[in-house]
Write a structure and sequence with these properties.
Oligomer: single chain
Order of helices and strands: EHEEHHEHHHHHHHHHHHHH
Shape: elongated
Largest sheet: 4 strands, mixed
Number of helices: 16
Number of strands: 4
Strand content: under 5%
Length: 381
């Protein structure tokens, strides 16, 4: 048998760190003689201990427990070919010390990921996945995507997919990795294209949902302003029964939505003096009528205490008597407006609670334990 050459890395470099960190521990334990050898590319062999290898990797354990080959001398040989000898040395060093040098991780991260996957060393695989994810760019995204699929690294796979979906597709087509993917792996190319299409559809649905929610929040604000105007009065518009109330009881509170109130007051004045109502009305009048009708579907004021918003009772009676075909649409719109109002109220309450907790944290001298206890207490309330 051809004589095998030892790897340039010494045994102390490979497994000495297990007992002497950085070589500074004067009480160094001596390990027994190696009983297995790792065969690497170029005919190098690395001495190792079967017990340590078997405890770290179930794949190596099965290889070590397998019956020896015929004509095998000088201990059991475990071939690790196809990767540089230095990468195999770093892999064995990680098995012994659970650590890997930064320069080795930077230089052999792909090889170490492949070794960690083949020999089932999840700690090394997770670290390589994290390092490769931090160094992910558009140029190596397709290569790392293929590697993540072969080595079953779902975290790295998702990061690659997200980067490809958030990148300009024309720039992606110019990369060498995408050209190679088109020529040699059309199945993965189809997966990437489907993922990009799903991301675009998801973004459109999210954008449409946010626009609809913003519209419902505006309508909810308009409904609140209608009640505010006709109940308490605001700037130029007074309450309905302002003449019957004494001056002391007609103190107006500060308006929370002045811009919306001001726009509604202009619509109210326009509706009162518009001369186009006989010809079907103008767009501004129709808008005001729609707001009043929407308020009638939202208003839950009992008959004993009639609502002060004009035409509210009239719209309710008409809806009960006529039952128009579009009443279902108005009821659905009213439910969505009420839901948007509730969500806005919850978000505002949470924001106020967060600000109060931050103030209490500052007043308590920045005590993290007290802040955590108060936060947990607020979450249960």
């Amino acid at each position: 048998m051809e004589e095998l050459r030892h790897c340039p890395a010494s045994p102390a470099d490979l497994y000495g760190d297990l007992y002497a960190l950085d070589g500074k521990n004067p009480y160094v334990r001596e390990l027994p003689e190696p009983d297995v050898y790792i065969l690497t590319t170029g005919g190098h062999r690395i001495p190792a201990h079967s017990g340590i290898l078997a405890s770290a990797s179930p794949v190596l354990e099965s290889i070590i427990d397998s019956p020896p080959r015929k004509h095998q001398n000088s201990g059991k040989l475990i071939p690790m070919l196809g990767v540089p000898c230095e990468a195999v040395a770093a892999f064995i060093r990680f098995i012994y010390s659970s650590r890997c040098r930064e320069e080795e991780m930077e230089k052999y991260d792909i090889h170490l990921l492949a070794l960690g996957h083949v020999y089932s060393v999840p700690q090394l695989k997770q670290r390589c996945t994290r390092v490769l994810g931090e160094r992910l760019t558009l140029e190596n995204a397709v290569d790392l995507l293929q590697l993540s699929r072969l080595c079953y690294a779902p975290d790295l796979h998702i990061r690659c997919m997200k980067l490809l979906s958030n990148t300009n597709f024309k720039a992606l087509q110019q990369t060498e990795g995408w050209k190679f993917l088109q020529d040699h792996d059309p199945h993965l190319e189809l997966q990437v294209l489907k993922f990009i299409d799903e991301c675009e559809s998801r973004k459109k649905r999210t954008r449409r949902y946010r626009e609809e929610r913003r519209l419902y929040e505006q309508l909810s604000e308009a409904m609140s302003c209608l009640e505010h105007i006709y109940t308490e009065g605001c700037t130029g518009v007074s309450p309905v029964d302002a003449a019957d109330q004494p001056a002391a009881s007609r103190k107006r509170e500060s308006c929370a939505h002045f811009t919306t109130c001001h726009a509604l007051q202009q619509l109210i004045r326009h509706l009162a003096g518009c001369r186009k109502r006989e010809k079907g009305g103008c767009s501004r009048c129709k808008r005001m009528w729609q707001l009043l009708r929407l308020h009638s579907f939202i208003c839950d004021q009992p008959e004993a205490y009639p609502c002060r918003v004009p035409l509210c009772r009239k719209f309710k009676l008409r809806a009960q008597q006529e039952r128009r075909k579009d009443d279902g649409m108005w009821k659905l719109l009213a439910r969505k407006v009420v839901s948007a109002k509730a969500m806005t109220s919850i978000s505002q309450t949470q924001a106020k609670r967060k600000r109060s907790l931050e103030k209490s944290r500052e007043s308590s001298g920045g005590s993290d334990d007290l802040y955590r206890i108060r936060t947990r207490r607020q979450s249960f309330l």
